[in-house]
Amino acid sequence: MNNQNLIIFNFKSLYIILKELEEHLNFKVFESLTIKNLNDKIKNSKNYLIITQKKINEINNQFILDNIPIRISRLIEKINIQSLKLQFNEKSEFRISQYKIDLNSRELIAGNESLKLTEKETNIIIYLSQSSDPVSVDQLQFDVWGYRSKLETHTVETHIYRLRKKILKKFNDNNFILSHKNGYQIN
After folding, report:
1. pLDDT tens across 5-18, in order?
2. What is the rounded CA–CA span in Å between residue 111 and residue 12?
3. In 8, 86, 109, 176, which residue has its Cα 20 to 30 A from 126's Cα atom?
4. 88-147 confidence digits (pLDDT tens)
């Protein structure tokens, strides 16, 4: 939980308590009393959790503390759990070209549209996105499928063909996975 920022929104008594304990905690404690101030704080902060008593619309990373009184040890535990969840979710989503891929739900997302992927399709996209050069069929077969065969197989080509077809149908994008004479590459 290094570099975690805890923003207490419109909850003065909690802010005073946590600020006093800050040196013993794994996060920096900030206070925000207005939505404008809150928006400024989160705009300038990458790793944050907002504690509030009521849900704030259109703002992410909130922990609603509406069941009080609460033991301070229990509160710290809940904050730590929420922070871990946020960190996990942050690491499970990343950008590839104009798309976002969500590893938890195995979805390829562009705007408001999403495409459900199989585990193998997800692995193919991730593997291809990590290479700046085209990846050969043999390399995909070995690294994604985990085997190398001397036999002629079209497993890789078939998976990529079907994946490209799904992406074309859903996003009208025929250039996300490019085919080169020496392999495949994410555009």
Report:
1. 899 999 999 999 99
2. 38
3. 86
4. 666 677 888 889 998 888 999 998 999 999 989 998 998 898 888 999 988 888 778 766
Q: Give me the mean pLDDT over the 37-49 stretch.
A: 84
H-helix or E-strand containing 64? strand 62-64
Q: Global pTM?
A: 0.55
Distance CA 81, CA 159 (A): 38
Chain centre to alpha carbon of residue 47? 13
> How far are the Cα atoms of 47, 50, 105 from residue 86, in angstroms, in the given order?
9, 11, 15
Residue 183, phi-psi category: left (phi > 0), alpha (psi -120 to 50), beta (remainder): left
Enter the tokens of residue 3.
Answer: 């570099």
Both tokens assigned to 67: 């069941």
Give the whole-angstrom CA distance, residue 9 versus residue 54: 9
Q: Which helix (H) or strand (E) holds 141?
A: helix 137-143
Q: Which stretches of 1-118 are DSSP H helices?
A: 12-21, 35-43, 72-91
Q: How is domain 94-186 classified at the CATH fold level?
A: Arc Repressor Mutant, subunit A (1.10.10)
